[in-house]
Specification:
heterotrimer; A alpha/beta (940); B alpha+beta (251); C mainly alpha (290); A: 940 residues; alpha/beta; 7-stranded mixed sheet; 6-stranded mixed sheet; 27 helices; 37 strands; 25% helix; 16% strand; globular; B: 251 residues; alpha+beta; Alpha-Beta Plaits; 3-stranded mixed sheet; two-stranded antiparallel ribbon; 11 strands; 18% strand; binds ligand MGD; binds iron/sulfur cluster; binds molybdenum atom
Chain lengths: 940, 251, 290
């Protein structure tokens, strides 16, 4: 017998349509293979700057997202009680008329009564603009419960942090140290980077209580006790300082280490920088020995010299920093027990960092000129790169911990140098180049400016005249002054409590707030359904846009069904959350590679329609007609400032097409589509490093429209705005914090990084709740929305609670056992499993696998609903009451970042229940249930 | 044709790097996607939105915890698909000739038109690399993407298996393992590539690169090697500023 | 391995049927006419019924003819051929005995040899599986053959042969269990060799590749409780071997013949259930299961 004949060259597809993935927020480029007008297969786009051809599990499963039975089909109006899931389908006209009738009176009388919050969305520059035109101060995206600590600490310290702002120099780094990352948004790039590092034989170190994923492939693992990274990092700083293994040249030139700090304890400016009349911070020039603004040509700032004036010594930041971190309280021995890492290991890591950074530098032979006019022949780098995410930021000491990490990087001279961490355009961008928050409400008119931004001191807080919070989420108040992304996790709770005031309509988009994105899930469901003495809902109206039948849908009064990501236009803009890589500024679009087969509409287009119906400036013409036909029209024709629009590629200039600045181009979207759905402008070689101080980069950035003039700046080892809040807490200035917050502000808003124990530890009893409980993102699942995916849910259909060996034995657990897990706030009963490669005081589970019965078009007996569970029931948005009558938010006191990972619990073995607890009654599925089998082959 | 060829002209296969695989399942799903749409019957799913969802996959990623005698436990992600064995027992057991090993490249395939769905080949495979599709009732297995690697409708760079093309961390390598000069053979030589279950005598073509030694910072002795890098600049308490001054002079 | 009822029924019944054919083929008993018809009918019902049962196990029985093509390498193919040839040869022989009262001895012997060969090929399907150490033993064909012949003798009313063969089969059964319980460990296949990670330390399955079930687990991984297995072994031994032999040695063996047959079949079904259910496939190691 012979081998059968086989056609090894079958046709692959009729056509490839290139767009952007949205199975998560990484935003990889995809090639959608079409057959017979249907999606047949999705692969990565090799030309795309983010993923260069690779695709993760979620991305490859996109086809199952686009055909998911849980897709909403038409606008829905609630007919049953809130939370029941009972709806009737209505027309778009009815839906929009209804929404307009609710919103119009609010805009005319009290715009703040609309709270508009968006979740996993990537169009904040647009949604924010809409909210601003509406006039409500109550807008933010989900950054407050996500990772604002990382973002704010990075921006305030060095004008950018990780992920969207920066990345390791994968090509040159020799030691890559990863703090608290399971997945991050830079999902594919991190995997690609680790692969590249490993192929070169460079080393990876993982600092994480849990040794899975990236930490499993790390060459060395530090199984740290949650919440103590700040101590570890500052101990590394201690060792490096002691050994003089810091980059003095870099510190003197590019950071505020030489900047002089007012040393007069009696001065209202104590701890602020000495400045000249123009407000420029002063240093002492080593050449002249004189006091001089930091940025003068030829100045060589002195790190060591202090300035004596009127009997007071003003010392440079470097002095303060050395004094603080050389203190024995930061010695490895002093932190070993609390961090769970032995002193020898901390020292070994410090030594490896020192060795790699200073004995093995990367030297690129590229000439460049700095902002003081000095030309350098080479680019010298310290090939130690760090990356971190929620493991350090989702704690109530996360801001300061992230700051500590940035300070460590800067001391090494490993930011924006070869082998270290590199910014992605349009970053670097210092805090001072960002807007400040705005909150001035005028009925019938837009807000006085953008909602979110970077405060520089108490004057910039969003307080009303009586000192009460201007925003429903209490962002930019004394509770959390630098809450640059708002506090989405506090909106429902505050609105329910009427603290600081009541609202009328809660309008949300793409956030599963009655389930996995809320703390205190059960409580939130209660708040959403609670009624007042008249029987009216305490939160009177809820409008929600989702694409799928999520848990949150059941809690809205009006549903505006979105399309799936392959059915709409989207704009991934340099104005908010770009897809740039260190070597190039890039933005991208999504476009309808297929048309919806249901009565659904892209949410952004709906928002424009609503804006026009409400007559919002910029969205409605004087005659009342809409300014933009739809979101695609907006993407092309909207201009934020003359020449600057949502998309940077293929704009019109004086001489034909141009990039960056330029007028609208009617064919812009076609150009994007022809180019694979994205645009990239490469950073010139001589501008590739030292970006904050590199003239070539600064000029290029101005040309691209990132800023209007070059903005060189110093890295802020010492963050002056923090000190301004401390000064207020010490009694200086006219805007004063309430007394109960003074001490907290003094300790937590320290201008040099500090470590303090998680706030929950001060409220809950660490003895009664001795175990840390964490969640991690599974790489093959995106929050709640992966579960509706027939392929992905087979990979993660249940989530056990992983228990470390000692606890496993202590409780006599065996496979298949269940445990009751108790926190200061709640109790859950869940299946357990054993894990040895785990910090001895930590238990954990995969995030967002547990599902509510009736959601996501799944069978009510779905394993996700029977055995799956959320840790969220144990985490409260408020700290346990202290008996002072105050509502203490479970958030970082600086930024308001939700402190998910401060959670402490105790566990007990219990008899297996019928299903994991708590169990909530099923919700009615507005979309029925999925089919019994799938064999999804598309034919031409 | 279920007797095995005496020899194959090439030995195409995968080399999987256990030191680099982060366990992301990208290869699992891209394999599912490609093979649902291409070679033979689609890979079906039963009860996909129900209480007991279960489908056909040609590549699955396990994970193992390894406890060394001393030191912290390690976790290893472990992708597994057909290893295209030279001495493939799954082929010789097949009663119909549906299973065969290609003479030209050694790829082990199932001719689905001839498969009676008896399941015997799956029993014969020690690695769990064959799965019966419950809808089509034929045996499915990794085809090494035979419909990609020679496919002239694909750009040349893309003529690699779907799982290799998609692997974000570059833990999967494809090539000819009979050619000692090929990239994959070089990798196997350099990194000590190994066979799974060698005692089963299947002579797998696919090789696994073992994880590199871990936790160097824990090794005693290592610290002494590193210690000089942390020699304090001064022992005096106020000495740091003095050192700073001197160090600056040298700049 | 998953104890699929169709395969258990097939191997048990067809083993008995071919065993009976063997005895009929060598003329024990050498009855003709209606009596022969009944004997042959029973043999065909068992053997043929078993074959039909096995076809239930196939995804595509309509392509069954292809299964005759790979006799050079495949024991399943050989079994199929053997079975069909046996049935054909014995059919011709049966025609002689039933309708012509003729005993074509060489044809009968040929059929008998083929019948034994069929049972042997069946047993070899399991014996060849290196992946199932419990099966991979010469005792497997020995057990299958002794059972087939012993059970056949019981059906054929060859009491004295049955009294030799059934105890022999019982002994083989015990030996097979004894050896089988040690086979996996002796095979040398372990979690360490399966993963190649044994050099680093002791290996434990952490997370399965999918939390959902799959074909491999359903098909290859079946866990029988130890107590349950011991109980079933006792039942199999008692019903399959001890009770039939006891019934046969009692006076009026004929009266108890039917009972002996029923008991034997029940016992062998239990034994066959265990044959599959207790058989650990090495793939279980990848799932941390054995
Ligand atoms: N315990 C615990 N809880 C956590 C975290 C944790 O670490 N531990 N992490 C927190 C963090 S950082 C985050 S960001 C949140 C995330 O939580 P969420 O923001 O709630 O994220 P998802 O569940 O992914 O999805 C939100 C909603 O978007 C909908 N959606 C999906 N695609 C579309 C679309 O195309 N259009 C529209 N309109 N809607 C769509 C989904 O159906 C879903 O209902 O979870 C938080 N919750
Ligand atoms: N596949 C997938 N990718 C995603 C998401 C998803 O749902 N799925 N979600 C996206 C979103 S919204 C976000 S915000 C990002 C978040 O991405 P990550 O920051 O990676 O978020 P988590 O999965 O919450 O992982 C936090 C990690 O920190 C560790 N950790 C917890 N506490 C500590 C600590 O005190 N110290 C240290 N060192 N480590 C600690 C945990 O063990 C865990 O490994 O991921 C994004 N990417
Ligand atoms: S990481 Fe995965 S899901 Fe996220 S955008 Fe990229 S391919 Fe899509
Ligand atoms: S891995 Fe299994 S299916 Fe693949 S060739 Fe080897 S024995 Fe056959
Ligand atoms: S299932 Fe198909 S391929 Fe496997 S042995 Fe049977 S006929 Fe051959
Ligand atoms: S080679 Fe192709 S068929 Fe085989 S595992 Fe990879 S993607 Fe799947
Ligand atoms: S895609 Fe690569 S890294 Fe991910 S599981 Fe597969 S082999 Fe491992
Ligand atoms: Mo997030």
């Amino acid at each position: 017998m012979t081998q059968p004949h086989l056609d090894t060259s079958p046709p692959v597809s009729d056509e490839i349509r290139k767009t952007t993935c949205y199975m998560c927020a990484c935003r990889c480029g995809i090639n959608v293979h079409m057959k017979g007008g249907k999606v047949a297969y999705i692969e990565g786009n090799r030309d795309h700057p983010v993923n260069k051809g690779v695709l993760c599990a979620k991305g490859s499963a996109g086809i199952m997202q686009v055909n998911a039975p849980s897709r909403l089909r038409a606008p829905l109006k609630r007919v049953g009680p809130r939370g029941s899931g009972q709806f009737e389908e209505i027309s778009w006209d009815e839906a929009l008329t209804l929404a307009t009738s609710w919103l119009k009176p609010l805009r005319d009388t009290a715009p703040e009564k609309l709270a508009f919050f968006t979740g996993r969305d990537q169009s904040q520059s647009f949604t924010g603009w809409w909210a601003q035109q509406f006039g409500t101060p109550n807008f933010a995206a989900h950054g407050g419960f996500c990772s604002v600590n990382m973002a704010a600490a990075g921006i305030y310290t060095m004008g950018g942090a990780f992920w969207e702002f920066g990345q390791p120099d994968w090509d040159h780094t020799k030691l890559f140290i990863l703090f608290g990352v399971a997945e991050d948004h830079d999902s594919n790039p991190i995997k690609m980077g680790i692969g590249r590092i490993k192929a070169r034989g460079a080393r990876v170190v993982g600092v994480n209580p849990i040794r899975s994923g990236y930490n499993a492939v790390a060459d060395d693992w530090l199984g740290i006790t949650p919440g103590t990274d700040g101590l570890l990092i500052l101990s590394l700083v201690h060792e490096l300082l002691r050994a003089g293994k810091i980059d003095l040249d870099y510190l003197a030139r590019y950071t505020n280490a030489p900047v002089l700090v007012n040393g007069d304890p009696k001065s209202p400016e104590h701890g602020l920088f000495l400045r000249d009349e123009a407000g420029k911070p002063l240093v002492i020039d080593r050449v002249t020995g004189k006091l001089t603004p930091f940025d003068q040509p030829g100045v060589r700032p002195d790190l060591a010299a202090s300035h004596r004036h009127a009997g007071v010594t003003h010392r440079p930041v470097m002095h303060l920093l050395a004094e603080r971190y050389l203190d024995p309280q930061y010695a490895p021995e002093a932190v070993a027990e609390r961090t769970g890492i032995s002193a020898a290991k901390i020292r070994a890591l410090a030594a490896e960092i020192a060795h790699t950074a200073f004995d093995d530098p990367v030297i690129l032979h590229r000439e460049w000129t700095d902002f003081r006019g000095e030309t350098h022949q080479t680019m010298v780098g310290r090939p130690v790169a760090f990356h971190a995410m929620r493991g350090i930021s989702a704690h109530s000491n996360g801001f300061q911990t992230a700051r500590a990490l940035h300070v460590l990087q800067i001391l090494l001279g490993a930011v924006e140098t070869p082998g270290g961490m590199r910014f992605k355009p349009p970053y670097p961008k210092p805090a001072t180049a960002h807007p400040k928050p705005h909150c001035k409400v005028t009925p019938g008119a837009p807000l006085d400016g953008p909602h979110l931004g970077y405060v520089q001191g108490p004057d910039d807080l969003c307080l009303r005249d009586d000192g009460s919070p201007a925003r429903i989420d209490k962002a930019f108040t004394w509770d959390n002054p630098m809450s640059a992304h708002g506090l989405m996790h506090m909106v429902i709770s505050n609105a329910h409590a009427g603290d600081p005031y009541r609202i009328d309509t809660l309008f949300m988009y793409m956030a599963n707030m009655s389930w996995n994105s809320s703390m205190n899930t059960g409580g939130v469901m209660q708040m959403l359904t609670d009624t007042d003495e008249n029987g009216d809902y305490v939160i009177p109206r809820i409008i929600y846009s989702d694409a799928y039948s999520s848990e949150m849908v059941a809690y809205a009064d009006l549903i505006l069904p979105d399309t799936t990501y392959l059915e709409r236009h989207d704009c991934i803009s340099l104005l908010d959350r770009p897809i740039a890589e260190a070597d190039g500024a890039a933005d991208a679009i999504r476009w309808p590679v297929i048309e919806p087969d249901r009565d659904v509409r892209g949410f952004q287009s709906v928002l424009l329609d609503l804006g026009a119906r409400l007559g919002l400036p910029g969205m409605a013409q004087p005659d009342g007609s809409p300014t933009y036909a739809d979101y695609a029209d907006y993407m092309v024709n909207h201009q934020r400032k003359p020449g600057i629009g949502p998309l940077a590629g293929w704009r019109t200039g004086d001489k034909g097409l141009t990039h960056g600045r330029g007028g609208p181009n009617a064919a812009q979207l076609d150009q994007y589509i022809a180019n694979g759905g994205f645009f990239v402008a490469h950073v010139p070689e001589d501008a590739a490093y030292f970006k904050p101080w590199n003239r070539a980069y600064q000029d290029w950035a101005v040309g691209m429209g990132f800023y209007d003039s070059p903005q060189p700046y110093l890295f802020q080892l010492y963050v002056e705005p923090l000190r301004r809040f401390q000064l207020a807490a010490e009694g200086h200035g006219s805007r004063q914090p309430p007394d109960h917050l003074r001490e907290r502000i003094k300790t937590t808003l320290d201008p040099l990084p500090v470590w303090y124990a998680a706030l929950e530890d001060g409220h809950a009893d660490p003895e009664a709740f001795p175990i840390h409980a964490l969640t991690q993102r599974p790489m093959a699942m995106y929050h709640s929305w992966g579960t509706q995916n027939a392929w992905l849910r087979q990979i993660h259909g249940v989530n056990p609670l992983y228990v470390p060996t000692a606890l496993w034995r202590q409780h006599g657990f065996a496979d298949g056992d269940w445990a009751q897990v108790t926190s200061a706030h709640g109790v859950i009963t869940v299946p357990v499993a054993h894990m040895a490669a785990l910090n001895a005081n930590t238990v954990w589970t995969w995030n967002a696998i547990g599902k509510r019965k009736g959601a996501w078009a799944l069978d009510q007996k779905a394993p996700e609903a029977e055995k799956g569970f959320l840790l969220n029931h144990l985490i409260h948005e408020l700290l346990p009451p202290r008996g002072d009558g105050l509502r203490w938010s479970n958030s970082d006191p600086v930024t308001g970042q939700a402190a998910w990972f401060d959670l402490r619990v105790r566990i007990e073995k219990v008899a297996a229940p019928l299903r994991s607890q708590p169990a909530y009654p099923p919700i009615t599925s507005p979309v029925g249930q999925g089919p019994a089998t799938l064999a999804w082959k598309v034919e031409t | 044709m279920t007797t095995l060829p005496d020899r194959t002209e090439r030995k195409l296969g995968l080399v999987i790097d256990l030191d680099t695989c982060v366990g992301c399942h990208a290869c699992v799903v891209s394999c599912k996607g490609w093979n649902t749409q291409n070679y033979g019957a689609p890979l079906s799913d039963q009860d996909p939105y129900g209480a007991d969802p279960s489908g056909t996959f040609l590549n699955r990623v396990h994970s193992y915890e390894v406890q060394p005698e001393a030191g912290a436990a390690q976790l290893v992600h472990f992708p597994k698909s057909c290893l295209h064995c030279d001495n493939a027992p799954c082929v010789t057991v097949c009663p119909t000739g549906a299973s065969y090993k290609r003479r030209e490249d050694g790829i082990v395939l199932v001719n689905e038109d001839a498969c009676i769905g008896c399941g015997l080949c799956a029993w014969a495979c020690p690695y769990g690399a064959r799965e019966m599709d419950m809808a089509a009732k034929v045996m499915k297995k990794c085809t090494l993407c035979v419909d990609r690697i020679y496919n002239e409708n694909l750009p040349e760079v893309d003529r690699v298996p779907a799982c290799v093309r998609t692997c974000p961390s570059n833990a999967r390598h494809f090539g000819d393992l009979s050619d000692p000069d090929s990239d994959v053979s070089q990798l196997v030589a350099a990194r000590g590539g190994m066979d799974l279950m060698p005692e089963q005598g299947t002579a797998p073509v696919n090789k696994y690169l073992p994880p590199r030694p871990k936790d160097r910072l824990d090794q005693t002795g290592e610290i002494d090697v590193l210690a000089p890098f942390l020699a304090p600049v001064t022992d005096q308490p106020k000495g740091f500023l003095g050192w700073l001054d001197k160090a600056l002079d040298r700049l | 391995m998953h104890p699929a009822p169709s395969i258990i029924a097939f191997t048990t019944l067809s083993g008995l049927g071919f065993g009976l054919m063997f005895w009929l083929g060598i003329g024990m008993p050498g009855s003709t006419g209606l009596v022969a018809f009944v004997f042959f009918a029973i043999a065909y019902a068992l053997a043929g019924g078993g074959l039909i049962a096995s076809a239930f196990h196939l995804g595509h029985p309509e392509r069954g003819l292809l299964a005759f093509t790979q006799w050079r390498s495949s024991w399943l193919s050989r079994e199929a051929i053997c079975a069909v040839v046996t049935l054909a040869v014995m059919a011709a022989y049966a025609i002689g005995r039933v309708f012509l009262a003729a005993d074509w001895v060489p044809l009968g012997w040929l059929g008998a040899v083929l019948a034994v060969g069929t049972v042997f090929t069946t047993s070899m399907i399991y014996t060849q599986m290196k992946t199932v150490p419990r099966w991979r033993s010469l005792l497997t064909p020995a057990l299958f053959l002794s059972l087939s012949l012993g059970g056949g003798a019981l059906l054929a009313g060859q009491v004295s042969w049955a009294l030799i063969l059934l105890p022999l089969a019982g002994m083989l059964q015990l030996a097979w269990w004894w050896q089988g319980d040690r086979a996996f460990a002796a095979s040398g296949t372990t979690m360490a060799s399966a993963t190649g990670l044994g050099g680093i330390g002791s290996v434990r399955a952490f997370e399965p590749p999918h939390t959902g079930p799959n074909y491999l687990l359903r098909e290859m991984v079946h866990v029988v409780g130890r107590k349950h297995a011991i109980k079933l072994r006792m039942i199999a031994l008692l019903l399959g071997y001890v009770l039939p032999v006891a019934l046969l040695v009692l006076p009026f063996a004929h009266v108890f013949g039917l009972l002996a047959v029923i008991s034997h079949i029940a016992g062998i079904l239990a034994s066959r259930w265990l044959f599959f259910a207790e058989a650990e496939h090495v793939v279980g190691l990848y799932y941390g299961k054995r």
